[in-house]
What we know:
- By secondary structure, this protein is of the alpha/beta class.
- The protein has helices at residues 9-17, 33-49, 64-69, 96-102; strands at residues 5-6, 23-28, 54-59, 77-82, 85-91.
Amino acid sequence: MSTVNEVTGDQFTSEVLDAGVPVVVDFWAPWCGPCRVVGPEIEKLAGRIGTDVKFVKVNVDDNREIAMRYGVMSIPTIAKFERGTMVAQVVGARGADAISAELSLGG
């Protein structure tokens, strides 16, 4: 069972911006090769960190307005949100350890 749920535009505010814990958002698209590499790494990281951080993914093709609002120009982009604000992001394919280090997740 996946620990990383897909979030749509209607859910973004409640699932990401209003979340009571930090949220890592994987901005991706089904046609993106590097995104398919990052997906399992995000799953691995979510499994290691548990409930201290929430992990979601946003399909940029289906949710262009969210991607534009946060300046997502290339995918994969992995962003960390805290209390409704994007506080960090990494662009490009990375392994779980690198994502954790670059977003200061401690996992």
